[in-house]
Design goal:
The chain is mainly α. The chain has one domain. The longest helix has 30 residues. About 35% of the residues are buried.
Length: about 270
């Protein structure tokens, strides 16, 4: 029986090309978003998309809730609670993303669609913000980060599953257009920036790795405390419909099951 060993050089070049592809993808999304922002298509596409009701309102309220930065973070913590390296990368991505989003939104200070367009041009769903800072979409950034992290964590020999994951998170980002909260440029740029945050987090982890032991009592206590705080923040905004309530209820149940399953292991 012949044993085929992996060539370290081939793995290195594969990793290098993957990194280059990640940078290129993030740059293309951001560049397209900037170009779209300065194009008349930015407004025309949004209005065109609202000329017809594509799916039920509650569906979009359910989907868009998963782009909430807090709820998205909770989902990632639940999925990878047993892997210290992945947890470190997730936490670093969100630590970079929160101030980055706030600074960029306030610096650009671009108005929301409902602050410019007449109400009859958009079929607003729920209670999308009228004022505030539109570029980039925070929900799209969270979705882009989650998509990039899952693409990085998942096995590359399952392409169909990878494409399904990317499609679902792209749908979360696009939901911000359906509810009338953002311009297309905000969503495209935000999705690209989400991938960029993951790349930066990977470099941060490479030069300053965090040693997180998921079985350590203090690590588990810290994660449970973080989940409790973020879950509280997720429930603070008012509910806009049954779909949003269902999404929040689902993530709350996931957090509870995660704590009940993992806490006894940490104590042991």
């Amino acid at each position: 029986m012949t044993v085929v060993r992996e060539n370290p050089k081939s793995l290195f070049f594969y990793s290098l090309s993957k990194t280059q592809a990640a940078w290129l993808t993030a740059f293309v999304f951001c560049a397209c978003g900037v170009l779209l922002h300065h194009s008349s298509l930015n407004q025309e596409w949004l209005i065109l998309g609202h000329q017809k009701t594509w799916l039920p309102e509650q569906f979009w309220l359910f989907v868009t809730q998963w782009g909430d930065a807090g709820q998205c973070l909770l989902l990632m913590l639940i999925l990878f609670a047993r892997d210290g390296g992945k947890l470190a990368l997730i936490l670093k991505t969100w630590l970079l993303g929160i101030p980055f989003s706030i600074v960029l939104k306030h610096t650009l200070n671009i108005p929301r669609p409902l602050n410019i367009l007449e109400a009859e041009w958009l079929q607003a769903i729920g209670q999308p913000p009228l004022l505030g800072h539109s570029m980039p979409s925070g929900h799209a950034m969270a979705a882009g980060s989650a998509a990039a992290l899952l693409f990085l964590f998942m096995r590359s020999d399952r392409p169909r599953l990878l494409w399904a994951v990317l499609f679902l998170w792209a749908l979360v980002a696009l939901s911000r257009l359906s509810v009338g909260a953002h311009w297309p440029a905000d969503v495209v740029t935000g999705f690209g920036l989400g991938g960029l945050l993951v790349i930066l987090a990977c470099h941060w982890e490479k030069f300053q790795p965090w040693v997180l032991n998921p079985d350590a009592l203090w690590t588990r206590f810290g994660l449970v405390s973080l989940q409790a705080l973020v879950l509280y923040l997720v429930w603070i905004p008012p509910l806009e419909g049954f779909g949003m309530a269902l999404a929040r209820g689902a993530i709350s149940a996931g957090v509870l099951l995660s704590v009940l399953f993992l806490w006894p292991r940490a104590r042991a």
